[in-house]
Each structure stands twice: as C-alpha cells, then as structure tokens.
Amino acid sequence: MLPGRGRDGRAAPRARVLGTRTTWTAVGDGEFFCPGCGGDRNYQRLSGRRRFTVLGVPLLPRGVTGPAVECAACGHHFGTDVLDHPTTTRFSAMLRDAVHTVALAVLAAGGTCSRTALDTAATTVRAAGFDDCTEEQLAALVEALAADTGRVHDDPPCSASLAIELHEALDPLAPHLAPAGRESILLQAARIALADGPYTPAEREALATVGAALTICTDDVTRLLAAARTPS
Predict the structure, then answer these.
(1) Chunked in runs of 10, what are the mean pLDDT values of the chain (232 residues)?
(2) What angle do CA 43, 49, 55 make, to 5 degrees?
(3) Which of these, 15, 176, 191, 159, lies nearest to 91 by C-alpha position?
(4) Which of 39, 82, 153, 181 could form an SS bridge with 78, CB 3.0 to 4.6 Å?
(5) Per-residue exposure over 199-228, b if at least 16 CB sit within 10 Å of its own CB, e if not
C-alpha cells in the first residue's frame, strides 16, 4: 500500500490541521415563521463565539459572530431579520383586525345608517375571521367611535383619529401583503361604501386613507375605486 493511500488505492482523507469553530449559546427563544419549513416553528436565538482550532482543538478566541436564529425543527440558521416576519397565527390576527378597522372606518364615514352597508360590512368582517360579528355590533361600535371623538355629521370626512386608527392597523400589515392582497382590502372597503349607493365625499376620503396606509399609489386607488363600481 502506497503512503498516503488507503487499501483501495484512493487518497486517504487528511486531518484538517488549522481552522475555526463557532460555539453557540442560546440567549432567547420563541415562535417564528421558518422560511425553511414554510410554517410556524419554535426557535432559539443564538450568540456565537469563534475560536481558532489546531487539529480540531479550540485554542485562541477569534471574536464573536451572529446573532443567529435556529429553527428547532429543521436546525437551519437564519439572520435575526427573519423575526420581523409575523407568524401565520399573528398574520391572520393582523389581517382580521385590519379588515374590521377598515369596515368601521367606511361605516363611520357615512354608511352606518344604511342597513345594506351594515350587512355588507358584517359579511366582510365575518369572512376575515370575526365569526360572531353582527350588524348591530358594528353599528354600536361606530356610534361609540363618534361619541368618543366628538365627531358629528358636518365634521371633515376623515377625522384625524380615524386616520390614525387606520394607519395603526394597516401600516404593520402592508409590508407582508402582496399587491393583490393590499388591493383586495381596498376593494372590500369600496364595496361596503357602494352598498347603499355611489361614494360620498366622506367615503372617498376614507378610502383614500385606506389606500395610502396600504401603500397603494393614488392612481391605483382611483382605478380600484372605479373597478369596484363595475358589477363582477
């Protein structure tokens, strides 16, 4: 047998003399959406220390690395920005709350007195996940909102407090929605406004605020509001 070769004549693997090794320490945990698994999983947040090795033995420190996020299921490591993506459960709750807030905003802009608008809004909110939502509940919430803000029918179409509510509900959601998903929310709002007749100026302003919070450009908002008026 030749030196440096195995019994089959092939080159024998050589031991790695010099290298680096990272030692990971868990510094936190939780639940996240794992891009590798494609679903919600548990994770550990890791902090790493690199060491210089000789023949596999760690000797000299080479500084810190990471942090990283390790999936408990697949074991893959990801950057900590992966935690910015909501879990499936959290995303569903955000979407449900956003649709509920948008429906209230449109009703508050002028549709709450119409039974057809309330029916359309309640159907939309139930489809988003609030299974027990009723027309009466929505009407009561709009009345409470008006009383809380001191808003009366002659006030500006979309009050500052209403715009703040919309942005609080939609701003965190919009980055995680595809363009079609953002447009779908605006179209649902438009159909609520149209349930009792053409858009009023107040409803148009509320819908424009919804579009802005969803990062839909003005031209596309105009196009979508026109499309909503065309029977499907």
Answers:
(1) 54 61 83 95 88 65 77 94 95 96 91 83 96 94 75 51 89 95 97 93 94 96 93 61
(2) 115
(3) 176
(4) 82
(5) beebbbbbbbbbbbbbebeeebbeebbeeb
